[in-house]
Write a structure and sequence with these properties.
Elements lengths: L2 H25 L12 H18 L3 H26 L5 H18 L2 H16 L1 H10 L2 H20 L13 H25 L1 H14 L5
Helix pairs in contact: 1-2, 1-4, 1-5, 2-3, 2-4, 3-4, 4-5, 7-8, 8-9
Length: 218
């Protein structure tokens, strides 16, 4: 691996830590200095540490695993003590720290694009805490059940169906037929969610646009 690529991978690990650290620091910006176990500087260093450990361990998974344990144990202890003192049972900061180290290590050894994408998604998920909690409070059982059924249709049944015709006229393809069923169900569910979020008129318009986007011109 060239020196420039090594620097790029280490910088990516630090950048992922910086991004997550900015989000964590913003969430806890009202806390006094020293009250947080991990803030913007710590998360940046954690991402850098993960990248350095990934580079030093080379292709050895055992060495990287030991590095992860050496980081995870003291970090978990500090987070546990902080949570105990604050009376907080949230494990978000702990998981965010472990994920930052893992993403830094993966940036050093795996796909840089994938590591960057997961880092951005992780920061977005952390930042949308209030939106996600509000969504969960308003979620109904029938809506959750419908989403689970749709996921089973997509992730379990669709891959299991043969993607070839099964009749003498070469007209019936189970995979394609079920795919159309999944698309119709997904558009219907998205329309329902849109109506819940933005109202009936705009929600129906959104569902119509989603349906139109699935039409493929010959």
């Amino acid at each position: 691996m060239a020196e420039l690529e090594l620097l790029e991978r280490a910088a990516l690990g630090a950048g992922i830590g910086l991004l997550i650290g900015i989000e964590r620091g913003w969430q806890e910006r009202q806390a006094r200095d020293g009250a947080r176990v991990a803030g913007i500087r710590t998360f940046t260093l954690v991402g850098t540490l993960g990248a350095i450990c990934g580079l030093f361990s080379g292709t050895g998974t055992v060495a990287l695993g030991l590095c992860f344990l050496a980081f995870a144990l003291p970090f978990s202890i500090f987070e546990w003590r902080r949570a105990e003192q604050a009376g907080n049972v949230s494990a978000t900061d702990l998981v965010a720290g472990l994920l930052t180290f893992a993403l830094g290590a993966y940036a050093a050894r795996g796909s840089m694009a994938a590591a960057a994408a997961v880092g951005v998604v992780a920061a977005a998920v952390l930042a949308e805490r209030r939106v996600m909690h509000a969504f969960l409070r308003h979620l109904k059982w029938i809506e959750l059940r419908a989403a689970l059924v749709l996921l089973v249709m997509t992730a379990v049944l669709l891959p299991a169906l043969p993607d070839h015709t099964i009749d003498p006229w070469n007209a019936l393809n189970p995979h394609q037929i079920w795919l159309m069923t999944v698309l119709v169900a997904a558009i219907s569910y998205a329309g329902y969610i849109a109506v819940r979020i933005v109202g009936e008129r705009k929600g129906l318009l959104t569902a119509g646009l989603l349906g139109a986007s699935q039409v493929q011109l010959p």
